[in-house]
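FAQ

Q: What does a record look like?
A: Structure on top, sequence underneath. For example:
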């Protein structure tokens, strides 16, 4: 039987006629590995995703067919396909794995999908595309090149006992080459350490900045892939690259790792129209100089640019590079050369300043109106040889000058030296700052606001969440969170963006990552970070508290490393992607065993490094509390979290097909629970330890409280909060991860809402009342020692954003589902809040929820994307009547609720 006849027979058996399509059903947003038309995929079985939409409600996919080909023509004709899935009867539309012929290194591929649905069949979708990375190290013909010297003008290297300061000029590299035939395809594979900016014939190959992503360079080196076909010129061409220091070369702060001098690896693969090929590689035939205008660059200190050293046309054909050097062949970094799968950083928004005022010393203070992360571009008038300096800060002192004490040793100053009198335009390339205010000096006039622009940078990703309510304070907290989160994405989730740290602290993201994933599609960033965490593990199996471990901190605590597990779980729950769990399960298992051996005694985890970090101290001048009654026993923190990780590992083991591990984890968890309660639980008072809110809420939410005592333990949380803390938060970074959801789950949404809307210390509202436009590191960040009072941290958000979207808006994935395939929509309605409107762009499409309760009236508008369903629960007190609405599958009553099952579409309930 011929293949086409066989497929038709299969289609008929499955109920797919293939003879008609419903134009109202649309296939959209094709993704491969969650990316649109990606380049440089490095997995043998990439995964396909798509979304479906219709003008009619209750849209369900019933079957799909995927085709893959090596060219658009083959895809269109159906001849020579690399994979034809055939008709697969399934509603699966997220991360469907490729199962065709082996994919070849560096090659482009094309794919399409068509669907059967309960509303008709679709035609073939438009084609998506991707290309493969270089899959074998032997395919790299390029060598690492650079300048193996520290003797260039403008360079200053701190030594032991010296100034701990790094100034190193950028390296400029160029290579002219011929391409004397018609070019069909040209692809650049490139890694420039620490950061690079690449040009072809004078034009940037990409808008990416700080590429490639930071890593533990002796374990892993990332390279990027760019299609540069459109930049190729007939005959003569020039590749140009600037190398900045990034995180590779000596990051100046004592204790931070340095990996060596900047270096470049580049390979341009050219396919000609006649079928022949050519390769241009980095080698000793290139030219290099360190005498260009970027005389120093350091992410913490700033960038210095001397316009007198500009080299016009250096990255284009015909430039005279006779004074440039032959590059040194540099030692290849020890790390595994890896195609970077997550997008690089880009400028995502541009802000205009809101004010400028002159200081008594003749300097000017610029106010951006928002604490932001990025850099400043300027259009100014300067004097020849007279530097113009820009120093960045988040805050001002009372006299209007910059507050720099909380930046510690970071110099945060960019300097531009004009080559002549008159106008100049400039922005840095290899630095970023966390700032709201900029002190500008070296000008002899007051510039206009229009002369400045603030460029907001973070990892390229979609904003997926929107949240607005009737309460301006609630809205501002969400806005501050939004600015703080994206300001701390720098190829890794960082603690802060402004001082001499900017590191991937694990404890900051253990639960916060879940909430962040509502606002941003951060899956690729967090997938990359999990690899950083595994790469940074010690041979003994210890997880570094900072990853990549630019600081070496192996504390063998539990709470900070737990992020390794929680983030992997988040990727599965939020995005339906279990690949991180599968990839890192062996490392997780190794860490669990290491911790059991290293710190467990009588089933109690005995070691804790940080406590309930940054809980509000009794005096607002303190960073950490000195009052024992406020501090939670470290063994309580470590044991509760390790117990939760044991339960996570049960689920992970089943996902990975490691069922033999399940009984061991379950048995150990049972023994820990018994030992924990014997040691820390007072049955008479229902208190854990010294009865802190953190001790009690961790025990409650992580499932350690003996059956029947849950209400009593919760009562202690309420009494402590109301009595000792006057309805305010009393937790640090660990307790806050469970506070808002814990209060709500046990019936005290009123208390959660009070904590949310407090404007007195300690609270998020207190931060805003005192001028914050991001989230502070400390509840008392305005009064504490500047050694640790960053104005842009996100760790104190805890579970707040999860609570916003899941509990206030009701956008919550069902417990037995992942990726929001099924939802349970059951919002809470605190007194004082009249409206909530939220949306979330899930892997299936946009989910919307908007409710109003005012003057006795209630209404709720819901939108679900195609191929999803929801259980909607509305309190009976709102007297909502559900008519015969299209898409409503079932209506039933439970105690206190009307329960409505709906399919995709838009719905209005209430008046």
């Amino acid at each position: 039987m011929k293949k086409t006849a066989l497929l038709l027979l299969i289609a008929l058996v499955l109920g797919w006629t293939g003879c008609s399509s419903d134009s109202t059903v649309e296939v959209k947003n094709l993704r491969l590995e969650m990316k649109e038309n990606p380049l440089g995929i490095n997995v043998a079985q990439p995964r396909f995703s798509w979304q479906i939409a219709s003008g009619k409600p209750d849209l369900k996919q019933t079957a799909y067919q995927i085709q893959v080909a090596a060219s658009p023509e083959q895809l269109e004709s159906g001849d020579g396909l690399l994979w034809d899935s055939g008709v697969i009867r399934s509603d699966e539309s997220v991360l469907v794995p490729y199962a065709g012929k082996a994919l070849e290194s560096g090659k482009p591929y094309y794919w399409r999908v068509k669907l059967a649905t309960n509303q008709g069949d679709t035609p073939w979708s438009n084609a998506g595309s991707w290309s493969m990375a270089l899959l074998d190290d032997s395919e790299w013909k390029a060598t690492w090149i650079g300048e193996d010297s520290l003797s260039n003008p403008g360079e200053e290297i701190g030594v032991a006992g010296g100034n701990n300061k790094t100034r190193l000029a950028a390296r400029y590299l160029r290579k002219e080459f011929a391409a004397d035939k018609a070019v069909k395809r040209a692809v650049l594979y490139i890694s420039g350490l620490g950061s690079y900016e690449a040009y072809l014939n004078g034009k940037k190959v990409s808008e990416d900045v700080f590429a490639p992503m930071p890593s533990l360079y002796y374990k892993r080196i990332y390279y990027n892939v760019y299609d540069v076909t459109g930049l190729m010129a007939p005959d003569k061409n020039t590749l140009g690259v600037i190398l900045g220091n990034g995180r590779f070369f000596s990051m100046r702060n004592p204790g931070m790792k340095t990996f060596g001098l900047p270096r470049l690896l580049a390979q341009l693969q050219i396919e000609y129209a006649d079928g022949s090929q050519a390769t241009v590689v980095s080698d000793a035939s290139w030219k290099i100089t360190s005498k260009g205008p970027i005389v120093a660059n350091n992410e913490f200190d700033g960038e210095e640019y001397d316009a007198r050293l500009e080299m016009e046309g250096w990255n284009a054909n015909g430039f005279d590079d006779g004074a440039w050097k032959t590059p040194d062949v540099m030692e290849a970094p020890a790390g595994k050369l890896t195609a970077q799968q997550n997008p690089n950083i880009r400028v995502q928004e541009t802000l205009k300043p809101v004010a400028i005022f002159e200081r008594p010393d003749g300097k000017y203070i610029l106010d951006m109106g928002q604490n932001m992360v990025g850099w400043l571009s300027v259009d100014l008038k300067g004097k020849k040889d007279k530097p113009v300096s820009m120093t960045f800060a988040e805050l001002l002192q009372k006299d209007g000058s910059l507050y720099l004490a909380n930046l510690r040793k970071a110099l945060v100053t960019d300097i531009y030296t004009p080559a002549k009198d008159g106008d100049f335009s400039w922005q840095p390339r290899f630095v970023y700052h966390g700032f709201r205010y900029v002190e500008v000096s070296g000008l002899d006039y007051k510039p206009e606001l229009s002369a400045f622009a603030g460029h907001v940078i973070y990892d390229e990703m979609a904003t997926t969440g929107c949240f607005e309510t009737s309460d301006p304070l609630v809205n501002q907290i969400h806005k501050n969170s939004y600015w703080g989160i994206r300001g701390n994405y720098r190829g890794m989730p960082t603690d802060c963006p402004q001082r001499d740290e900017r590191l991937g602290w694990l404890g900051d993201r253990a639960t916060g990552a879940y909430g962040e994933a509502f606002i941003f599609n951060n899956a690729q960033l967090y997938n990359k970070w999990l690899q950083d965490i595994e790469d940074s593990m010690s041979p003994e199996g210890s997880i570094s508290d900072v990853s990549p471990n630019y600081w070496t901190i192996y504390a063998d605590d539990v709470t900070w490393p737990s992020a390794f597990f929680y983030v992997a779980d988040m990727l599965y729950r939020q995005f339906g992607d279990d690949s991180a769990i599968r990839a890192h399960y062996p490392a997780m298992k190794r860490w669990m065993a290491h911790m059991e051996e290293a710190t467990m005694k009588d089933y109690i985890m005995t070691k804790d490094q940080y406590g309930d970090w940054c809980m509000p101290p009794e005096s607002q001048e303190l960073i950490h509390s000195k009052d024992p009654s406020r501090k939670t026993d470290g063994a309580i923190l470590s044991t509760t979290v390790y117990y939760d990780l044991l339960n996570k590992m049960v689920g992970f083991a089943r996902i990975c097909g490691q069922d033999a591990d399940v009984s061991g984890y379950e048995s150990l968890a049972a023994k820990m629970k018994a030992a924990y309660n014997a040691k820390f639980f007072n049955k008479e008072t229902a208190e854990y330890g010294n009865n802190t809110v953190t001790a009690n809420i961790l025990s409650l939410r992580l499932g350690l409280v003996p059956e029947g005592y849950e209400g009593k333990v919760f009562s202690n949380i309420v009494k402590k909060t109301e009595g000792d803390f006057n309805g305010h938060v009393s937790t640090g970074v660990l307790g806050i991860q469970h506070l808002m959801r814990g209060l709500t789950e046990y019936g005290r949404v009123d208390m959660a809402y009070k904590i949310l809307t407090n404007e007195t210390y300690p609270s998020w509202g207190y931060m805003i009342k005192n001028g914050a436009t991001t989230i502070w590191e400390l509840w008392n960040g305005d009064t504490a020692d500047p050694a640790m009072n960053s104005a842009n941290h996100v760790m104190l958000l805890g579970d707040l954003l999860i609570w916003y979207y899941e509990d206030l808006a009701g956008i919550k994935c069902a417990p037995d589902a992942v990726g929001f395939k099924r939802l349970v929509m059951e919002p809470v309605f605190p007194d004082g809040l009249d409206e909530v409107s939220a949306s979330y762009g899930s892997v299936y499409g946009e989910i919307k929820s908007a409710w109003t309760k005012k003057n006795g009236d209630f209404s709720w508008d819901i939108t679900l994307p195609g191929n999803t369903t929801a259980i909607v629960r509305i309190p009976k007190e709102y007297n909502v009547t559900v008519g015969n609405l299209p898409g409503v599958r079932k209506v039933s009553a439970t105690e206190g609720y009307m329960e409505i099952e709906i399919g995709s579409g838009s719905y209005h309930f209430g008046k």
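Q: Is there anything notable about this one?
A: Residues 1-22, 157-164 have pLDDT under 50 and may be disordered.
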